[in-house]
Design brief:
The chain has about 150 residues and is mainly α. It has a single domain, classed as Globins (Globin-like, Orthogonal Bundle). Helix content is about 75%, strand content about 0%. The protein starts with 6 loop residues before the first helix and ends with a helix. The structure holds protoporphyrin IX containing FE.
Length: about 150
């Protein structure tokens, strides 16, 4: 599992890890709020009770934080990526849905972090998210093909 993001992006993303640890769940809760409002069709794929009780936002926050911390040694994330990818295949997540989550996640970061979400931070996360999305899309394609 390799990454194609620039060293500068790696540095910026890693520097946001503490703030993500602190505000991660607020960001992911906001992310789902934005996504379900703007793209209500995706709701059918989710167990909405896991939204209401915060389980799913907590899982996503952990995944985003882990990625921020390990972006320069992604091989440590292989087990996590595998588990999430299998869940995504079970719930029929498709490649074309990744930009939706990316857009809503960046919006949520801006909404929650305010001034701390500088242009630099948002641009770095846009690049980093894209790279993570590609990792999931590739892994999920393998799983879909083996099913
Ligand atoms: C890089 C982007 C993404 C990350 C980091 C991520 C992360 C996660 C995590 C941590 C879980 C929980 C897995 C588990 O229960 O073991 C999950 C489940 C799920 N994800 Fe994603 N995800 C991403 C993109 C997407 C996209 C694009 C969609 C499409 C709408 C999506 C839809 C789902 C669904 C439907 C579930 C199952 C939720 C449930 O059980 O109710 N995810 N994801």
């Amino acid at each position: 599992m390799s990454n194609t993001v620039s060293q500068e992006t790696i540095n910026i993303v890693k520097s946001t890890a503490p703030i993500l640890k602190k505000h991660g769940q607020k960001i992911t809760t906001r992310m789902y709020e934005v996504m379900f409002e703007q793209y209500p069709d995706v709701k059918t794929q989710f167990d909405m009770s896991a939204q209401a009780n915060g389980t799913q936002p907590a899982k996503l926050a952990t995944a985003v934080y882990s990625y921020a911390t390990h972006i320069d040694h992604l091989e440590t994330l292989q087990a996590m990526v595998d588990k999430i990818a299998h869940r995504h295949v079970q719930t029929h997540v498709l490649p074309e849905q990744y930009p939706i989550v990316g857009k809503c996640l960046l919006q949520a970061m801006k909404d929650v972090l305010g001034d701390a979400a500088t242009e630099e931070v948002v641009a770095a996360w846009a690049e980093a998210y894209q790279a993570l999305a590609e990792i999931f899309i590739n892994r999920e394609q393998q799983i879909y093909q083996s099913n």
